Amino acid sequence: MRGKQTAALKKSNAAGIRFKKWLNKNSTAGVIFALPFIIGFILFMIVPMAMSLYYSFCRFEILGAPRFIGFDNYIKMFTDDPEFYQSLSVTFFYALVSVPLRLVFALAVAMILLKGTKLTGFYRAAYYLPSIIGGSVAISILWKRMFAEDGTVNRLLQGIGIDSHYSWLGSTNTAIWVLILLSVWQFGSSMLVFLSALKQIPTTLYEAARVDGAGGVSSFFKITLPLLTPTIFFNLIIQMISGFLAFTQCFIITQGRPMNSTLFYVVYMYQQSFNFYNTGYGAAMAWVMLILISLITLILFKTKKFWVYEGGM
């Protein structure tokens, strides 16, 4: 009996040793394959973040050596920099207006494309294209020319009998709306996410609603919208972060003009860092934005339970 127990114990130990060797072998392979990402993440994310955190407490002018000054950059930012508050308010307005409009437009187009036709694939690609090229420098230059005094928009208005020579980008009332319109035009990525979610909603729910006498509008608000709230939440988080970090549109089209009415936060941070050589101050601004985005994301997650449906379909 003891001999059988001893043999079983030896066999179990041998199996354990073989498993550990296999585990070590596979772990090593996994680490080797993940090593390029790990090295890249450390070199291009962790190290720059640590350096920017240090520079945010320094007077650093790129060409010179950083000099530690404590919280002076942060104190100046909140007490002696009106342009900081101006850029913050412009960015908040831009994000809070453009993101909901983009999501509404993306959902509307997704519902239209849900009904399949022979050209549905073409329409999906065509509507997604602005999301790929919309943030490029070329599109920003094109947009700038379209809304110039002698641009396409005024020429179209003149073509229908409206004598328009309005400077869309030269007015504090309309310049920010030109940038918002460009943002809304880039709705393609959100549209595809909505389209995928709409396909997951069981058709039996709509059939049951029709049997009960519900119309299209009622079905949308009672079935479609509640079941889409997780997707809306996902798109809201992604697009809100993108809105607060918008850069190319402002930098190429307006550069914050006129009268700082389109001065985005990231553009002002860039100006401080590279135009005015206040790199330490720009680093401090970057960390303030990181904290703001983190707080907004945290608030959205905390309020998620009040409006996001997490039950099964």
From TrEMBL:
Q: Which GO terms describe its cellular component?
A: plasma membrane
How the protein sits in the membrane? Multi-pass membrane protein
Which UniProt keywords are present, listed alphabetically? Cell membrane, Membrane, Transmembrane, Transmembrane helix, Transport
Alphabetical list of PROSITE patterns matching this protein: ABC_TM1 (PS50928)
- Protein's UniProt keywords contain Lyase: no
* Locations listed in the record: Cell membrane
Q: Where is the ABC transmembrane type-1 domain?
A: 88-300
Supply one GO BP term. Answer: transmembrane transport
TM spans (from-to): 28-51, 92-114, 126-143, 175-198, 232-254, 274-301
Pfam entry (one): BPD_transp_1
Q: Which InterPro entries match?
A: ABC_transporter_permease, MetI-like, MetI-like_sf
Tell me if Transmembrane is a UniProt keyword of this record.
yes
UniProt family annotation: Belongs to the binding-protein-dependent transport system permease family.
Q: What PANTHER family does this protein map onto?
A: ABC TRANSPORTER PERMEASE PROTEIN, ABC TRANSPORTER PERMEASE PROTEIN YESP-RELATED
Name of the protein in its database record: Sugar ABC transporter permease
Tell me which species this is from: Candidatus Acetatifactor stercoripullorum
